[in-house]
Every structure is written in structure tokens, then in C-alpha cells.
Amino acid sequence: MAVLNPGKYMELLPMDVKFALTKVIHVLEESFIGLWMPDRLLKATYHYIRNRGKLIRPTLVLLMAYALGNGTGIERAILPAASVELIHTASLLQDDIMDQQRIRRGVETPYSIYGSHTAMLASDLIIAKAVEFAIRSGDNDIVFELLNSSIKLAVGQSLESELSGRDNTTIDDYLKLIYYKTASLIESSMIVGAYSVNVKDNEVISRIRDIGRFVGIAFQVRDDVIDYLNMDSKNPGVNYDEINIVRIMSRDNGNIEDAISKARNLLNDMLDNAIDAIRKTMDNEILINYINLLRI
């Protein structure tokens, strides 16, 4: 098992996707230029834009647009990709507040530096800008997809609060939680990538939704195993009040190794399902190789 360097994800991308991702980053960095706001709010708003992660969600938007558009039309996916990343960024700010998270990606969080009120207002600003970018894409299907995904994220945050600290959380509870809190936005990332190149066939969209859900579940299971084993030096290990699949699977017999093995099997089964659905929908080994990086 290993925590991959972000460069590994970039190595697999076609040049057109890398170039488009550079444009997405530029859009994100210019998001609030010309809008005056107090310095603390400005810094909190830009914190995760500048201290960004692997940009997996906007990359999935671009990869899907690249695959379904046969390498053309990827420019139309830039604003939707930026919108997706802003929605994710807002969810991090809210997550920090609710979990009282002080370190993320190896640095202090906006919640820790500026307080919960400023972090909350920053998340409001970012969500508003995400909606603006979705509208500017010119496609109502993209707008409604991302609005619906934002609703699911809020539901997921609430469900996590209800389940945290309980000692009777089931695997079904866990799967529902991670769908709403993580997989739903990854699912929407792939959908808006398809919409960006005018793919609207219901059967194709349904398959892409399945792909995104499978990848999103795998993504969160992987993070849970990494957190449980304290493998990421930039982030603290698992908080024992949080919902974690390893702890749920080991609760009855205390066998951590067996629970980790089961979690890895679930992760890899989800990726197998995603790859099977990709091959039924499109010819895209690049996307397959990209999501295969999640295997542990």
C-alpha cells in the first residue's frame, strides 16, 4: 500500500487534458479577482484553491469529455471542471468546521487559522462562484447536476454527524454515507464531463453514473484504509469518532488485518465494476489506467 505522489496522476494524462487542467487551475486562481473582501475572508477563500490536492474531480470531468468527445470539445469542460473543484473546496471548509479539523494536506486549516465564522462565509462565497461557473457553461443539465450533487453533499455531512460516535453503525450505513459525502460528486464529475461534449443519451449517462459511483466508493474506502494505518504523513490518522470502514468491519472480532483485507477487496471490486462499465460504454484505456491508481 502507498500514498501516491500527485505527479503519478499527472503522468497518465494526455497533453490535451494536462493543458485543459492548467486552464482550470487558472480559472480557479482568478475566481475572485476584482471582488473586494476583508483580508481574512480572502485568505480563507483561497486557502484550498492554493493548497490544492490531486485535482481528481476536475481531472475526471476533463478525461470524460476527452474520451466521449474523441479528443475534441474539451475546452467546453473547463468551466464545469472548475465548478466541480469549487464545490469540493467548499465541502472541505465545511468538513473542517464540523470535525474541528486543524490540519489538512500538511497545513493548518482555515477553520484553525481564521475561525469557524470566516471559514463558513468562505464556503458560501465558493459555492456561489461554483454556481456561476456552472451557469456560464451554458448547459442547464450541468447546472442541475451540480446543484443536485451539492444537495447530496449537505445530506452526507448531516448523516455523518448523526452516525459519528455511534457503536452500531452498519456497512449499509457506511455505504450510504460515503455515497452522499464523497461518491456523489465524483459521479457528477463524470456526468458533467459527458454533458460538456453534448452526450445526453440516457443509457450512456446511466452507465457513466454507475462508473462514477463505483469510483467514488473505492476512493473513500481507500482513504479510510490509509487513515486507519496513518500512512499519510501530511494528515493526522483516523479520528475514532469518525466513520471508518476498517473499524466497522473489525468491531465484532477485533481482527484489524482481516478488516483491512475485506476493505481492500471491496475497493478493488468497485474498481473492477467501474472498469467493466467503462468498457461497455467507451474505448478509453487512459481513464481505466487513471482510476487503477486507486488500487491498494
TrEMBL record:
Coiled coil: none annotated. It holds the Pfam family polyprenyl_synt. It comes from the Archaea. Keywords: Magnesium, Metal-binding, Transferase. GO terms for biological process: isoprenoid biosynthetic process. InterPro entries: Isoprenoid_synthase_dom_sf (IPR008949), Polyprenyl_synt (IPR000092), Polyprenyl_synt_CS (IPR033749). Its cofactor is Mg(2+). One of its GO terms (molecular function) is prenyltransferase activity. The keyword Transmembrane does not apply. Signal peptide: none annotated. Belongs to the FPP/GGPP synthase family. This is Polyprenyl synthetase. It comes from Vulcanisaeta moutnovskia (strain 768-28).
